[in-house]
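Quick one from the shared queue. A colleague (R.T.) flagged ubiquitinyl hydrolase 1 as missing a structural entry in our internal table.

Convert sequence to structure tokens.
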Amino acid sequence: MSKVYTLDKNNLSEEIFEKGSLKCFKCQSNEKLVKKTKMLSCPPVLVFQIQRIVETGKGFFKRTDPVEFSFDLKVVGREDEKRVEVDYKLYAAVYHSGDLEAGHYYSAVRRGSDWYICDNEHIWKCRDAKETSKSVGEIKTPIAALCGVPRHCVEIVDMEEGIIYDDCRDVTTLSRPLQVMVGTDERRVPFYLLTTDADMIDQDPDDEEPRLKMSCGHAITPYNLFGHMRNSLINKVKSSVTCLTSGCNQEWSMNEIIKKADMTTDESLFFEYKISLNAIFSHNNDTSECPHCGQFCQRQQNTQAVRCSICSPRKHEKQADFCWDCKAPWVPNHTCKNRDLEAIQKILNEAPLKTLDYSNIERVPSKRLCPNCRTLIEHERMCKQMKCPGCQTEFCFSCLTLCVGSRLQCSGYSKECSVAPVQNAFS
């Protein structure tokens, strides 16, 4: 879509009924009903809604093709029979990231020459347009062209974590090389699997979309099968994929799903690993992650104190023993702390390493806890001096030394210093 909108007679018209569904009262001929909108004056604030949800014969889906628009818009109107020209400046945009089933709303708001992105919890400054940083959505197009597939068949993933990255994610925050999962634009059904039974999701026996029978005997299209499998494993984080037919709930094997959804090798490898990962967290009470290195550990005989076999040989690790329940370092007469710290520790462990450009310091964890109030903070840009948004404490993001009178104590903001290791959320 090359332009967001043009105020001409075509775009300000909306077809209400298709031709043939309405008869003219005078001549009784079949006509279509069209609603036309006319601007009588130029309002102080102009709001456009871009229709991204469209309906096809297969149901509703969200368009994901990019929208390009100018920051300036000149509108010609009439007030008191006089021609009036009004120049509008783009002030804000509200957009949705995700699909019809899940996602998030964001707003971009301009303040002076700077843009800020807002969600439910955070506000952060948008990168300058001159910078080379791109989003996941932006790099999908050249990757798709290189792979010879449509853009919607390409996903940027993290195989080890079982993550499919959202289109708005900044590529510079991802580990390299990027992991790409290539799908298919056409999911075929072998003739011997075809059935005329209604799809368990659409419930339309007259639908011409090819359908196949699952092992439980209920029918589904390969596209709906893949979508149901993806939703179950990614959005709902389930450890199994089951039939949606009321009263059935039979579990399908991944081998069956891979074959009948006509999945590519990339898709098969990713989702087979993902369902295994989900099973580890949901079913196996004797397997969990080490809070220090992130590797999976197993415990024996339901003991609370666990020793990580990876961390133990490392001499610099002061404590490789941790509590199975709360993941805090194990000490005699240990009492469990807040379980939310486990999630915070996981974020700290998995935070990508970055270079603080202004200070020329490499391999710094991009997420830290404030040394004073323990607020979780992410470094986006500029130098190493950080001000906590919670308690207003200033500190060095690299070595974690506190500032005195807003002045760094380790070195100047543009000079190197030591890099403190990943913090322990439980200490």
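Helices lie at 136-147, 222-235, 254-260, 265-282, 340-350.
The first helix runs from residue 136 to 147.
Added to the table.
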